[in-house]
């Protein structure tokens, strides 16, 4: 979907990196290494996205650190488009909400870091769920989003917490 609208694969990787998780940051050489691309192609796209106001940057020593510009008028829309591209919306709709009794859902690993590697690691915090039904939902969702799901179910949040991208939290009434 996104690659039909945006022809630059480098730009898509940068949008996924920065708009999948607002906490993601990156610098030129690190991004070039992460994506396996030249620093020049990364620099060109970083400059374009910065000039458009979609990315902001700050100096960290001798390097520029980039991140999504959360005050840009298109920030929420781009975040939503990237979420749909990665399948997060379907994941939440089909797996998390389909189970019904989920307290939290947290994406961890590569996808929390904005890397589209093909396997989404999801931790579900739920007191009691039907594991057979969860397996059914996982298989159904994998077919729909064309990505593998690795799901970990916990009854409660561990004392050290769960690091990642919070994609769902049950509203406490």
Q: How many structural domains are formed by the residues?
A: 2
Q: Taking Cα atoms only, what radius of gyration do you get, to the nearest Å?
A: 17 Å
> How does CATH name the architecture of the largest domain?
2-Layer Sandwich
User: How much beta, percentage-wise?
Assistant: 15-25%
CATH topology of the largest domain: Beta Polymerase, domain 2
What is the overall pLDDT average?
A: 88
The profile of the biggest β sheet is: 4 strands, mixed
- What structural class do you assign from the helix and strand content? alpha+beta
Q: Percent helix among the residues? A: 40-55%
The CATH class label of the largest domain is Alpha Beta
- The number of distinct helices, counting runs of at least 4 residues, comes to 7
Unreliable segments of 5+ consecutive residues: none
Q: Report, as a whole number of angstroms, the end-to-end distance.
A: 37 Å
Query: Total number of β-strand segments?
Result: 7
Shape: elongated
Q: Give, in spatial order, the strands making up the sheet with the most strands.
A: 6-5-4-7
Order of helices and strands: HHEHHEEHHEEHEE
Protein name: Transcriptional regulator
Organism: Cyclobacterium qasimii
InterPro entries: WH_DNA-bd_sf
Brief overview:
The protein is built from 7 helices and 7 strands, in the order H-H-E-H-H-E-E-H-H-E-E-H-E-E. The chain has helices at 2-5, 9-19, 28-35, 39-51, 75-86, 88-99, 131-145; strands at residues 26-27, 55-60, 63-68, 102-108, 119-126, 148-154, 165-169. Helix 3 (28-35) packs across helix 4 and helix 6 (88-99) packs antiparallel against helix 7.
């Amino acid at each position: 979907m996104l690659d039909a609208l945006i022809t630059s694969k480098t730009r898509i990787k940068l949008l996924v990196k920065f708009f999948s998780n607002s906490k993601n940051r990156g610098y030129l050489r690190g991004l070039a290494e992460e994506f396996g691309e030249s620093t020049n192609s990364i620099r060109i796209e970083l400059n374009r996205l910065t000039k458009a106001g979609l990315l902001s940057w700050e100096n960290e020593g001798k390097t520029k650190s980039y991140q999504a510009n959360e005050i840009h008028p298109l920030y929420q829309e781009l975040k939503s488009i990237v979420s749909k591209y990665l399948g997060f919306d379907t994941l939440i709709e089909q797996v998390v909400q389909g189970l019904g009794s989920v307290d939290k859902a947290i994406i961890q690993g590569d996808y929390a870091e904005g890397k589209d590697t093909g396997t989404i690691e999801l931790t579900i915090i739920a007191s009691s769920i039907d594991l057979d039904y969860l397996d059914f939902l996982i298989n159904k969702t994998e077919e729909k989003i064309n990505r593998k799901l690795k799901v970990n179910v916990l009854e409660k949040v561990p004392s050290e917490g769960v690091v990642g991208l919070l994609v769902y939290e049950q509203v406490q009434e």
